[in-house]
Amino acid sequence: MFCQLLRLGVWLPAVALVAASVGCHSGQRTIDNRYRQLSHDFLSSQNQPVSTSAALNPVVHTLSGPHSLEEYIHVGLQQNSEIQEVRLMVESMANRVPQVASLPDPMLNATAFPSPVQTAAGEQEFALSMNQKFPWRGKLATKAGMAEEEVNSARAQLAAVELKVVEQIKNAYYQLYFVQHAISIVGKDKQELERIEDIVDQMYRVKREVTQQDVLQIQVALARIDAELVQLKQQEESTQARLARLLHVSPETKPEAMDSLPPDQTVQNIEQLYELAVQSRPELHAQLATIKRDRKAKCLAELQSYPDVTFGFNWISNSSEGISPVANGDDAFMLTLAMNLPLYRKRLDAGVREAQTRALSNARKYDRLKDETMEVVADLFAKIKSQQETLRLFRDDIIPRQQMAFTQSRDDYQVGKVDFLQMIDNWRQLLRYQIQEKRLETELQQTLAALARQIGDWDVPESATAGQPSVETNCQVSNENDGPTIEDVN
Fold first, then answer.
1. What tens digit of pLDDT does each residue of 51-80 get?
2. DSSP string of 3-55?
3. Does this model's pTM top 0.90?
4. What are the two backbone dihedrals, phi and then psi, of residue 88, each rounded to the nearest 5 degrees?
5. What CA–CA distance (Å, rounded) separates 341 from 310?
6. Percent of the chain scoring above 90 in pLDDT
7. Total Cβ atoms within 10 A of residue 411
8. 192, 265, 286, 341: which is deepest, by most CB within 10 A?
9. Fold entry, domain 67-102+135-306+342-489
10. CB of 361 within 8 A of CB of 340?
């Protein structure tokens, strides 16, 4: 029996090497097949033919024509490529937690003696041993807590990416709204200019009250209107392509904005905006999770001063024939206990200081992000108030007065009280003010979208209702997912 074990021990490494080689090749083929299957399933789920160029064609959706902003945001949150990328990354990071919380693999060691060891009890032909390492109590839980905080930071970054994409969709939608209305305004003014052309042409050909120069100038103005319409059409197509990219739909999709925007929001209390930004901005939550991870890293560095224990057993086979007359050939069994000796205090203390300094650095980064958030909120608040006041002036004062000035100059031109240049100048000024009013309305909505992103919400709420997030303050090594505050790290 032991001779068979001996032969098995001699050939076992060679057989294992061949099996490992075969296993590697078959495993690689399995991985390749699974990769091809996953690629096929992914492309099939995207309703696309399986080809090398299929991945270049985004998903086709029937979003052409006017749709509300909420519909576009809903589609964007579901299909935007960047959001999907970060979501999968968060899911990938979540799988790190059970990995770091697990014990290391046990070590199994088999030893064959081609030349048996002669002992009084018999020849030693084969030995088998197995060892399992057990980290000091709390190390695995602390590592798992660090991994959980990294996942929490990634989740906060995902929320930040979603808010960024929502802001981009809003900006593209509002820009599309502006271009559509600019095209409409220019088209209506072109019709007005064509009526003026009829009046000028009649006055030149019938009454001979104007010169040919007036006719030529009105034709030049019409040509400039056509050139402006061409530019606006190009801007519309470019904005539609950008919105289609954000929604991850076909570039042939022609999305359109609704004819009207929701009522203007009035932002009154900047203190509420400060509070909302600190409570809800995802970047700040991500940084807090990073600080919690660093605090757990400091606890882990302190735990390195305690040894890890390795338990094991050995089995050695003995032959039944030995030098001793009382040799019985019984196999030998041994239990082992090993541990590392954390003696080098300079290295251990340096690890603690490294973790503590990194936590302090990230705490200062949190303060910097908080100050930047306050600055951006204050700047956007001032910009919103200015835009709202300017828009009110255009709607209630500037445009109505300019409309009256143009109408009066047009009537006076027909009776010869004003010249052609004065009338055309009033017309151009009215067109400029009308477009500027729509531009101001668009910029106001875009500024509100930027403010909503800063305070961590899709829209700017009327009042602050969220509570301050709570964080635990004890640095204890346990299975609980406790976390630090900024004061704890200092």
1. 333 333 444 457 888 888 899 999 999 999
2. HHHHHHHHHHHHHHHHHHHHHHHHHHHHHHHHHHHHHHHHHHHTT--SSTTGG
3. no
4. -65, -35
5. 12
6. 49
7. 12
8. 286
9. Outer membrane efflux proteins (OEP) (1.20.1600)
10. no
